[in-house]
Amino acid sequence: MNILVFGGVGQLGQCLKKVADSKGIDGLIYLDEIQGNILDVQLLNSLFEQYQPQYAINCAAYTAVDKAEDEVDLSRLINKTGAENIAKVCVKHNTTLIHISTDFVFEGKLAKALNEEDIAEPINVYGLTKLEGEQGISQITSQYFTLRTSWLYSEFANNFVKTMLRLGKEREELGVIIDQVGSPTYAVDLAGCILEIITSKSDAYGLYHYSNEGVTSWYDFAKAIFEFSNYSVKVKPLKTSEYPTKATRPLYSVMDKSKIKSLLGIQIPYWRDSLAICIKELGF
Ligand SMILES: NC(=O)C1=CN([C@@H]2O[C@H](COP(=O)(O)OP(=O)(O)OC[C@H]3O[C@@H](n4cnc5c(N)ncnc54)[C@H](OP(=O)(O)O)[C@@H]3O)[C@@H](O)[C@H]2O)C=CC1
Ligand SMILES: Cc1cn([C@H]2C[C@H](O)[C@@H](COP(=O)(O)OP(=O)(O)O[C@H]3O[C@@H](C)C(=O)[C@@H](O)[C@H]3O)O2)c(=O)[nH]c1=O
Questions:
Q1: List 62, 126, 186, 210, catalytic entry
Q2: For residue 58, which of 11, 114, 135, 157 sits 20 to 30 Å off, Cα-Cα?
Q3: Which residues partner with 146 through β-bridges?
Q4: Radius of gyration in angstroms for the set of CA atoms belonging to the chain, rounded to a whole number
């Protein structure tokens, strides 16, 4: 079985490789931005011709949340048009598409765990273009799984955990937002879930939510990162208004994961347990 992984050297792509290798799952082909540019339709066609993949996993995305506010067209090109390009080639080759989306499709004004039926109303450009990508895919093919996830981190690429550890080395005190609440997700756990979907051979296509279990704020997340890494950094709680950013972020973006849990019969790890594993993997 061949599985094409777009964005194969980004954070999630590297986690997929780690988990697939550890489980002895082969057939995954990890494509970087040049080998698998999702904006190059001709290239996509020839890759699908060559590999005749059963699955395509789209980990490629424009993920710079603040920069997206100024680069609307580029963000839309990658997150919407790029996703649609893959979906169209998937239809031609009867390939199942596994696509990744985000909690940032939600406005985040209600303190309620959001399920797949809840209305998505993005409040920033990144979230909007990711929602457009989801919608584009669902109009092109019915043979897709879109997994919305949140606050991804791992030992690979750039993420909040690595930023905190870098800043924690440089500074004695850090200010971190306490009134934005969500669920951190170890990208290795998400990679495991994606591979479960493939090995289960499920055809229950559609939209699913996946994050680690539990709820926290960025402030509490930072505190846990320093606790597990034994850094003695003072973390100061900030309100969103005290940490201005170009993009507005949802205040509450906790997702209900009942649908994916009942599809796969899985137990999802608690965020602190997974964070402890990641910090160990980082060498602490
Ligand atoms: N990171 C997070 O906190 C969250 C991420 N997500 C979603 O999860 C998915 C994976 O994210 P993550 O791995 O963290 O993101 P990364 O930014 O680490 O990886 C994205 C990859 O896509 C590549 N890419 C960009 N443009 C193209 C293109 N035109 N063709 C092919 N590849 C391209 C990037 O390459 P390069 O770096 O060279 O530009 C990068 O390697 C994304 O869909 C993201 O929206 C959802 C929730 C949270
Ligand atoms: C670095 C830093 C960030 N923050 C805040 C800003 C922001 O509200 C929050 C997280 O900041 P970051 O910029 O690291 O993360 P951000 O890019 O907002 O993370 C998002 O990325 C996209 C791709 C997603 O899909 C989302 O699920 C989410 O993970 O922490 C602080 O309060 N203090 C700090 O020192």
A1: 126
A2: 114
A3: 99, 207
A4: 18
- Following CA atoms 244, 245, 246, 247 in sequence, which dihedral angle do they give, to the nearest 10 degrees? -120
- Whether the full predicted model's pTM is greater than 0.80, yes or no, is yes
Indicate if ipTM > 0.85: yes
Q: Cα dihedral angle (261, 7, 65, 171), rounded to 10 degrees? A: 90
C-alpha–C-alpha distance, residues 128 and 213, integer Å? 25
* CA distances in angstroms from 284 to 75, 104, 148, 219, 220, listed in the order given: 35, 31, 30, 21, 19
Q: What is the pLDDT of residues 237-279, one digit of tens each?
A: 999 999 999 999 999 999 999 999 999 999 999 999 999 999 9
CA–CA distance, 274 with 29 (Å, rounded to integer): 26
Separation of CA 77 and ligand 2 centre (Å)? 22
Q: CA-CA distance, 248 to 54, in Å (whole number)?
A: 38
Structural domains present in the chain = 3-158+186-213+254-269 (3.40.50.720)
Give whole-number Cα distances, 83 to 38, 57, 132, 147, in Å: 7, 10, 9, 13
Identity of the amino acid at 241: S
Residues with CB under 6 A from ligand 2: 63, 65, 102-104, 150-152, 160, 163, 167, 174-177, 180, 218, 238, 243, 245, 249
DSSP secondary structure letters along 95-114:
PEEEEEEEGGGS---S-S-B
